[in-house]
Amino acid sequence: MQILILAAGESSRFWPFSEICHKSLLKIGNKTLLEQTIDGVKGNEIILVINPKTQLSEDILKNKKISIIKQEEPKGMADAIIKAKNAIKDEFLVIMPYYVNIKEYLPKIINVNAPAVAVKKYEDDDEKTHGIARIDKKKVVEIKEKEKFPGAEYSIIGIYRLKKDFVANLEKIQNTQYSFETLLNEVAKTTGLNYFEIGELPSLKYVSDLLSIKKFVYAEIKKQNKVKPKLKKGNALIEKSVILGKNVKIGNNVSIKGETYIGDNSFIGDNALIRDSIIGENTSIGFGTEIARSIIMDNTHIHSGFLGDSIIGQNCRLGANFITGNRRIDRKTIKIEIKDSYDTGLTSLGGIIGYGVKTGINTSVMPGTLVGNNSIIGSDTQIKKRIESNKLVYNKKENVEKDI
């Protein structure tokens, strides 16, 4: 089967990481999200649509089963599919580049005739991020984008099985942001669409969604690793569910719990507590640091402190007593400043820190704070909302000296 993977968008809602790379090229755990997705469809012919600026790994570039198509401008899904038309033979599958668990659904998908879409049962507020579908007589007969309507009990998931003639019809209609969805709805109303109901797939619309993809990444890494028994390493306690990479060094009195992965060549200092987190390669977690439900990317060093429900980019250096607040005092949902203010719907969210950020001692981060790439936060500074990239931020204080 041919599988078309669309990875050419701007990822603008993924700031600050969108300044560095496409969201699918973020390395969470042991591989990028795109590499994990490609692993899940091995054995199939892959057509990969990317932005010309995208830097792909050598493994992808040398893979003879992957055709690479460049979309010069991010003009949307319809344009990306049209760009790939010469590589498409007949039936093909369209997926997103961060479907790291796609492998478990392939057997079900290949048994459904095109044109077909993946659906799941509607949940409250799905219309904010999904197309909504009405099903009648075992066919999808109507789709509306971002709108719940009478009789619609399903949500559209980003997997589509199509034929080449669908691409030809795409070319005939005016190219807009929702051209693909418009044509899909026309087909649904005219002949009906087959469908396959599937379980949960990652959704990565906003940067805060990375915290929800963490469990999918952990599950895929777990499949590749033998589960260890509950054990003590020296006088450290490491639960059965924890996965350790190669050459990981563990200090005294360390406790590592839950669905946690720690990458190769990392160091966990004395008295550290890590729970349900993904820790990248070559990271250093210092004495007494507590990390809960967070993602720490490669080559980041944390001296000490608390990180809850946070995302820390590569090559960061966080000074002693770095603290993230991850809950509002009133326990309301937390907003982030992406283009405009976006309500994440989360009641637990700490800081989202870009690549190459450095902080002095005693830095505190309020819930939902975003820090741009390569910024520096001075000692004894509290930050909130959004700090742009390449900024120096500090509190100006003066000592008062008097005779006793």
TrEMBL record:
Organism: Candidatus Parvarchaeum acidiphilum ARMAN-4
Enzymatic reactions: alpha-D-glucosamine 1-phosphate + acetyl-CoA = N-acetyl-alpha-D-glucosamine 1-phosphate + CoA + H(+); N-acetyl-alpha-D-glucosamine 1-phosphate + UTP + H(+) = UDP-N-acetyl-alpha-D-glucosamine + diphosphate
Ranges where the Mannose-1-phosphate guanyltransferase C-terminal domain occurs: 235-289
SUPFAM superfamilies reported for this sequence: Nucleotide-diphospho-sugar transferases (SSF53448), Trimeric LpxA-like enzymes (SSF51161)
Domain of life of the source: Archaea
Keywords annotated in UniProt: Acyltransferase, Multifunctional enzyme, Nucleotidyltransferase, Transferase
GO molecular function term, any single one: glucosamine-1-phosphate N-acetyltransferase activity
Pathway: Nucleotide-sugar biosynthesis; UDP-N-acetyl-alpha-D-glucosamine biosynthesis; UDP-N-acetyl-alpha-D-glucosamine from N-acetyl-alpha-D-glucosamine 1-phosphate: step 1/1; Nucleotide-sugar biosynthesis; UDP-N-acetyl-alpha-D-glucosamine biosynthesis; N-acetyl-alpha-D-glucosamine 1-phosphate from alpha-D-glucosamine 6-phosphate (route II): step 2/2
Residues annotated as domain Nucleotidyl transferase: 4-176
Entry protein name: Nucleotidyl transferase
Pfam families for the chain: GMPPB_C, NTP_transferase
